[in-house]
Fold this sequence. Notes:
The complex is a heterodimer.
Chain A: H1 2-17, E1 25-31, H2 35-51, E2 55-61, H3 65-77, E3 84-88, H4 92-96, E4 102-103, H5 105-111, H6 123-128, E5 139-144, E6 146-151, H7 152-157, H8 169-181, E7 186-190, H9 193-204, H10 211-214, H11 228-242, H12 254-260, E8 264-270, H13 274-280, E9 285-288, E10 306-313, H14 319-331, H15 334-344, H16 351-360, H17 362-365, H18 371-376, H19 393-408, H20 414-435
Parallel strand pairs in A: 1-2, 1-3, 7-8
Antiparallel strand pairs in A: 3-10, 4-10, 5-10, 6-8, 6-9
Helix pairs in contact in A: 5-14, 9-11, 15-16, 19-20
Chain B: H1 14-40, E1 43-45, E2 52-54, H2 58-65, H3 67-100, H4 105-113, H5 120-131, H6 137-144, H7 155-183, H8 187-195, H9 200-230, H10 232-238, H11 250-260, H12 264-292
Antiparallel strand pairs in B: 1-2
Amino acid sequence: MRKLLSTAAVVAALAVTAGPAAAQVEIQWWHSMAGKLGDKVTEIADKFNASQKDYKVVAVYKGQYDESLTAAIAAYRAGKPPQIVQVFEVGTATMMAAHGAVMPVYKLMAEANEKFDPKAYLPAVTSYYSDTLGNLLSMPFNSSTQVLYINKDAFKKAGLDPEKAPATWPELVQDAEKLKAAGVPCAFTTGWQSWVQLESFSAWHNVPFATLQNGFGGPGTRLEFNGPVQVMHIQNLADMAKKGLFIYAGRKDEPTGKFQSGDCAMETTSSGSYANIKATAKFEFGVAPLPYYPSVKGAPQNTIIGGATLWVMTQKDPKVYKGIARFFTFLSSPEIQLDWHKSTGYVPITLAAYEMAKKEGLYNERPGFDTAIMELTHKAPTPNSKGLRLGNFVQIRNVIDEELEAAWSGQKTAKAALDDAVQRGNDLLDKFQKANK
Amino acid sequence: MAMEKRARFRSAWLPYALVLPQIAVTLVFFFWPAAETLYYSVLLQDAFASKIQFVWLDNFVTLFEDPHYLSSFKVTAVFSALVAVAGLAVSLLLAVFADRVLRGASAYKTLLIWPYAVAPAVAGVLWLFMLSPSVGILTYALRSLGIDWNYYVNGGQALLLICVAAVWKQISYNFLFFLAGLQSIPTSLIEAAAIDGAGPVRRFWTIVFPLLSPTAFFLLVVNIVYAFFDTFAIVDSTTQGGPAQATQILVFKIYQDGVQALDLGGSAAQSVVLMLIVIALTVVQFRWVERKVQY
């Protein structure tokens, strides 16, 4: 017993004195990756910490995207911002309008003398997060896009070819009718309805969502998603809802539960749901590109990304910037990117990682896993499909969700719902522009 | 009458020192945020406070011109009325039953009090799982009865869901008070009425209920405040104000606009309006309803 105590005392004394001689600079990384994704994030941080001794990245799960953004803003207002915060794509305009609060990535990398070539990243991703001069403002990390998942077993039951997912919306309606006739309770549903059925839908069909290149052209942008193509599509979906072919099940990710349980045979949602679906679905499923309308010229164009990027907040002590820059270089290395892509379903952000995945035969092992990146690189982005940059975008999405719900329940026609959404959204844009003059 | 008991403190500072922690907490956690909210409601600012403009009452004007804010009033009014009435009625009924029961009385009372210990967010999630259109047990049961339960599309069903979850939680609290109130009524009164030939219903409405009125009044005030504020967690965990604003109560809209959308001026203005409404309601209740209370 005495020996044990004295050994313990020696160990404790050593531990206290054997702290790092030079203080490690801590980098706080606030993120919103829950569950398995969060474990992966922590793993990446640990790998970086093990690879060098000067900096320590501490990954902290701060809640969902909107919660962690609010926390970061509150911390900034209190004078203690985190070093890195993961902000979802709809927060881009808010972050960009934050004069003095944000350290743009291109500046960070240049000042730290870290090699950084924006052309090494997917153009669909960099265009979303660059300013009008083409400078990259935040570091891409987890980007996803929309895909169509189908339940192959349900297709077989309905007498449809399970390898042939519907490529166009008219085909999807026909397949849905056959599925319903075969007794499938829910033929089609969609997650993230605003993102999938309006925002990316507009890009996929090369029609504008808002003026001034969807907001990229500068302030003063106004919404335009009540054009004839979008009205036709929403009315189409509303008619499907009336016939019981489209079962609406929630604004965000809730509908994926219905697909996973086998209730719904087809779902359009984020490619990032791949990992969860693979883990829980007890049936064979397939991944296909978003359907399109062949009657619209120029469709399919390319889809827009969702997900988030890493923003650097201005720090009082510039010593930490070098560490952040080194971490970003580490994060963008093909090995880390490939591992992240394989474990999650988010697209590989760098072309090098994409090539590595192809060479490895990853897409032969997992058919459909490359659907997302193929949609993003389908054609070079046009002014209608670079992405969206709108102020008060979270509120605008709430407005769109509410109006679409009114359309699904039959309370309003698609045209009335979209017109109202545009009008309410424009008020919100006006408010944002006034507050950020 | 009753003896006046006053604690006499010899020292001049001790009473203040004893009360100081509580006052400090109230100042820091209630008055300070309230003052900040009042200040924010007359500002127009971006999320990072890099540009702040003083805009007088513009935020309030924008609010009242917004038809969706006004519809939020209606939803809150309907919701609070339902929760208060249903909550009081059901718990009064249960209290009356529990008062008469002789065998296993403490078992009933314990079980009826448990829901109060459940946090509102947990209560919301419980009901969410039972009634979720995707995976809920009760949903399957309702489907087998031919009822299509999908509160993502049906606004009435969504409102019903949050009413049920909110009332369920509050029943225990009301039940406790009603039970205590019932037990403080002298049985001699009730026996006298029974001897005179009054039936149980008559006895209840002419003797028991008036004697319960102080308790009922207190619970009415508490339940209305509960319906306005503490039900936030239930709405957040189940319907998030949808579908198409059918369950967007005022306190939830404040959260949506302030925390999710980072519109600090607008949501501060809404907070101020909500505070004024609840103050007005409480004043009304004390002035008018209290007259009917018989102490």
